[in-house]
Amino acid sequence: MIRKQLSRLCMLVAILATGLTAKGQTVGIKTNLLYDATASANLGVEVEIAPRWSLDISGNLNAWNIRTNQYLRHWFAQPEARFWFCNPFQGHFIGIEAHGGQYNVGNWGTNFKFLGTDFHKLRNSRYQGWFVGGGITYGYTWILHKHWNFEAEIGIGYSYTRFDRYPCANCGTKIESDKSHNYVGPTKAALNLIYVF
Predict the structure, then answer these.
(1) Is the confidence at residue 63, as pLDDT, over 70?
(2) Contact at 8 Å (CB) between 45 and 63?
(3) Distance of CA 45 to the CA centre of its chain
(4) Are 95 and 137 in contact (CB under 8 A)?
(5) Residues 52-75: what's their mean pLDDT?
(6) Cβ–Cβ < 8 Å for 5, 69
(7) pLDDT attached to residue 23
(8) Which residues, 6+ apart, have CB-to-CB distance to 45 below 8 Å?
(9) Which residues are registered as beta bridge partners of 166?
(10) What pLDDT was estimated at residue 123?
(11) What is the mean pLDDT of the chain?
(12) pLDDT in tens, 74-96
């Protein structure tokens, strides 16, 4: 049921974004260099919707293995409403973001806990499930050239996830089924290269 609602939300955001008219330099297409570094395909579109307001929609996909028996497969969408302190596409902004998607992650040699989440469990287990949540963001955009910008952004928030756990990356026998977890912490990190129309 939540997956259907998430799909409907993503469709609504996409329809709203394509229905907006673009005037001058009011549309930007972007890629997050941090996601590029993890071999995750990603694309974002940002549209000015009012003076000092913009709507940013990004999506990410990683459907392949990084290394043998290591999983970082996922897809997620992250719409965000932004308020700019000056003009859209330049300077400081704050935002409210939502996010949701699915993941299949495991066999990573992590060894730390962060705000109630034990990432050490990723060392010997694989987790497969879905998540949904939201948060607040802060960022800054630098104008590099007439059509090129660079943007840094960080966000914190909440995610609710439901998952199945498996004993290893390739095992098919479940250890746990339909478990839930509440995460509070960073929900967005971006170093975006943007082409502005």
Answers:
(1) yes
(2) no
(3) 13
(4) yes
(5) 84
(6) no
(7) 47
(8) 17, 27, 28, 29, 30, 56, 57, 58
(9) 126
(10) 65
(11) 84
(12) 999 999 999 999 999 999 999 99
pLDDT of residue 10: 53
Distance CA 79, CA 132 (A): 12
Rg of the chain on CA atoms, in Å? 18
The whole-angstrom separation of Cα 44 and Cα 46 is: 7
- HEC string of the chain equals CHHHHHHHHHHHHHHHHHHCCCCCCCEEEEEEHHHHHCCCEEEEEEEEEECCEEEEEEEEEECCCCECCEEEEEEEEEEEEEEECCCCCCEEEEEEEEEEEEEEEECCCCCCEECCEEHHHHCCCEEEEEEEEEEEEEEEEEECCCCEEEEEEEEEEEEEEEEEEECCCCCCCCCEEEEEEEEEEEEEEEEEEEEEC
Q: How many residues are listed for the chain in this entry? A: 197
pTM of the predicted model as reported, rounded to 2 decimal places: 0.78
49 CA to centre of own chain:
21
More confident residue, 131 or 5: 131
The tokens 């549209």 sit on which residue? 47
Identity of the amino acid at 187: T
Q: From CA 66, how far away is CA 172, in angstroms rounded? A: 20
Residues 140/93, Cβ–Cβ less than 8 Å: yes
